[in-house]
Structures are given as C-alpha cells and as structure tokens.
Amino acid sequence: MKNYIASEQEGEKLKELFVDGLKDIYWAEKQLTKALPKMAKAATSEDLKSAFEEHLSETEEQVKKVEKVFELIDEKAQAKVCPAMEGLIKEGEEIIESTDKGTMVRDCGLIMAAQKVEHYEIASYGTLRTLARILGHDDAAVVLQDILDQEGNADKKLTDLAESHINEAATQE
C-alpha cells in the first residue's frame, strides 16, 4: 500500500485522529486488565476460565505494545476514556449479575460479551494499523498488526469454546 497524504494540513488532522484512537484503545486495554479477572472468576468452564486468564496476560502485553506505538510516533502515552469499551465492560458485568453462578448459560453470556469486546478491538486495531501505514509509521503498523492478530486469535478461541461444548451444554440447563 502506498503511503500518501494529500496535504500537510490533512496529514496533521489524520495524525490527530490516529493519536486519539490510540488514546482510546490504550484506555480500553487498561480497563480490560481489570475486567478479565472478574470474567475468569465468573466462568463455569475451566476452559473458559483459562482462556480469560491467557487473554489477560496478552492484554497486559498489549498495553505495553500500545505504549511502544506511542513511543514510535513520538507521542506521550495517554489514555482517554473509551465510552464504547466502558459500555461493553458494563454489559459483561450485567451478564454476570443476571445469570446463575455455575451455569453454562452464564458462560454463553460471557463468551458473547467477550466476543463483542474482541470485535471492537479488531475494528480499532485494524483501522489504527491502516492509519499508521498511511501516515508513514510502518514500524508502528507492524506492532498494531501483531496486536490485531492476537485479538483475532482470541476471538477464534472463544468461538471454538462456544461451538465445542459450552453452547450445547447450556441447552441442557
């Protein structure tokens, strides 16, 4: 893909949008490091608990990777409240509160909530990666692609868990 910006002024506006998006996802990832342990604790299936714990470790790494992107583009790492992630986390908390402990129905709800988070992150990182390339920050684009790949893998793992046994078990409750 060719790195092209029509004018310096447009490039500055695009960079502002890019940095704003980084601040947004930085806040989101930091909040997920608090939400994932709660989701793991609420999960019934050991496989789902394990998936949340593994993704917590990845998310902690992703926070550091986003900090690296800020460094690569000569910006200070700052977080900005992400209303979308705030809502998605709240939705996950509501699922925990509204489902019975120790049930696969709760696990189905947790997977649903987690996949909404993953899809938000996939959309965010895909866009940020593309903006990094357009702005000529190829090194930052590589880091963002790495995170995007991890988010895609997390989403696939959740789908596999749901399809392998959790959804089926929930129908028996």
From TrEMBL:
Keyword set includes Repeat: no
Record InterPro entries: DUF892_YciF-like (IPR010287), Ferritin-like (IPR012347), Ferritin-like_SF (IPR009078), YciF (IPR047114)
Pfam families reported for this sequence: DUF892
UniProt cross-references to CDD domains, sorted A to Z: YciF
Keywords: Coiled coil
Coiled-coil ranges from the UniProt annotation: 49-76
Superkingdom: Bacteria
Name of the protein: Ferritin-like domain-containing protein
Lineage: Bacteria, Pseudomonadati, Bacteroidota, Cytophagia, Cytophagales
